Amino acid sequence: MTSVPLVSVFSADDSSKVTAKHIPLPAVFQTPIRPDIVSFVHTNIAKNRRQAHAVNPQAGMQHSAESWGTGRAVARIPRVSGSGTHRSGQAAFGNQCRKGRMSLPIKVWRRWHRRVNIKQKRHAAATAVAATGIVPLVLARGHRISQVPQIPLVVEDKIESYEKTTDALNFLKRFGAFEDVQKVVSTKVVRAGISKQRGKKYRVRKGPLVVYFNENAKLLKAFRNVPGVEVVNVTRLNLLQLAPGGQLGRFVIWTQSAFAHLDKLFGTYRYSSIIKDGYQLLRPLITNPDLARIINSNQVQEKVQPAKTTKVLHEVQKKNPLKNTKAMDRLNPYAKKQRVAAAAAIKANTKGTKKIKKNKALKKASRAAYNKVAASLNDATKAAVQEEQDIKVKYFSVQKGAAQTE
Amino acid sequence: MSQQVLWEVVKGNNAFLVKRNGLTLSTDPFNNTGVQTYSSTGFISKNAVGVVSTSGKVNQINNINLVTKKSTKFQQADRKTKNTQSVYASTLAVKHGVHTASRVIRKRFGTSRVGLQRAALRKLVKLNRANAVRRRNELAAAKAQKK
């Protein structure tokens, strides 16, 4: 990390004003993105809010049912004792039976919670914070950030003293975060399933997360009624809020002091964390993960052998050399010469053969005879036509003469 | 952020992913093919142009916008041009014809990423044609109304 990226702090009242121009980004934001760690930690930590529940241990067992044994033409399942009611003689106790107890009934001492190694939890939190600073990840999580002036969004501490929800709303509107809130409002759905009868009527999306620092900040009350918005103190950053559903890239709004506290909280690559005792930020396996850039870099391209041209070993469709002359020539370059010589030989041969000569002569003679006959016929027809013409002319001229005289 | 790393995070699940009928599609505005693949997913790359049809809020002849991806290395959006710039993209309205837009696309991709360039151009042409049809219909309807 030779050049440290810089971030601006915005004025709470006016989103175009910047109160602090170039603050270096805390080292947490440079942590390698590790979705595997986050996913693992999230699935386990998500179990820690569960409350113990269990099935009534007596459920389905409150009978003095006994199996009737064999020889009674019924299945051997325990059957309800007694008489005088439909229930008597019905099957009981089994998981397969109607009104029987479930198999492996849930016990209160089920292992509800999971412990995760502290280091893993911290790495996950660090990665989640880093992901909040990466625009494509925030987009991929589905936040509407097209109007937000900067990611990560850092605002001056003034918002920590907001008490009224109107202030909070106006602040969100000013910074383009209201689009995300609108998304939350418009996608509020009645939950599918029984939970809606158990106090979880609606499924609400997650909107922006506002992170503050000073303990006596009042902004919790200002922001808590805005749908989708969550407020949290930097010292208590929660993976379940930073990467809801295990999905990295929550849209986070930091206050200036919260942002500044991150270096102390997570430490940097120069010093380990002050607050998280002995915690050192995760180092990347590859410092430059941009493969395309590495491959195309001068250092690599210099050492690399020139690209091999794709060599065509054979034609895609096989041609029969016995029928296809070009295919034959490719296999045997002398074949062409052979063919030419053979043709010449044949030609020479045909010129000399007696039979062929005779035939030629006969052909010639017959043609001559034909031509003669044709010529005489031609003459004859010509003469006949001429005669007819003459008669016509005579006849018509006579007629004309007759007409004229009249 | 490296496109490869982002792809590993995003390929399994993201807001633009749509899986239907065995197809893996994407509603990413920077994706001109519609199918989610590594190279066509523009929102994770540094260099992408999305051809987007707008709803017509902005009074345009063509309801097409070009959304060009900006390098998102902690850049601020220019607040003066609020409607056309964001942290990750700048929007160019395609007003008349398709030529300036295609020039923008060609310049963006240059000689590399020809496939992406073609996809963007293809979409631009198609949207343009669709708009031509729509405009023709609108004009015809307006004429009919006048009569």
TrEMBL record, chain A:
A single MF term (Gene Ontology): structural constituent of ribosome
Protein's recorded name: Large ribosomal subunit protein uL4
GO BP terms in the entry: translation
Family: Belongs to the universal ribosomal protein uL4 family.
GO CC terms: ribonucleoprotein complex; ribosome
Large ribosomal subunit protein uL4 C-terminal domain ranges (all copies): 278-351
Cited InterPro entries: Ribos_uL4_C_dom, Ribosomal_uL4, Ribosomal_uL4_euk/arch
Keywords, in A-Z order: Ribonucleoprotein, Ribosomal protein
UniProtKB/TrEMBL annotation, chain B:
Source superkingdom: Eukaryota
Keywords from the named record: Ribonucleoprotein, Ribosomal protein
One Gene Ontology CC term in the entry: ribosome
Domain Ribosomal eL28/Mak16: 5-129
GO molecular function term, any single one: structural constituent of ribosome
Matching InterPro entries: Ribosomal_eL28, Ribosomal_eL28/Mak16
GO biological process, one term: translation
UniProt KW Ribosomal protein keyword: yes
Pfam family, one: Ribosomal_L28e
Family to which the UniProt record says this protein belongs: Belongs to the eukaryotic ribosomal protein eL28 family.
Protein name: Ribosomal eL28/Mak16 domain-containing protein
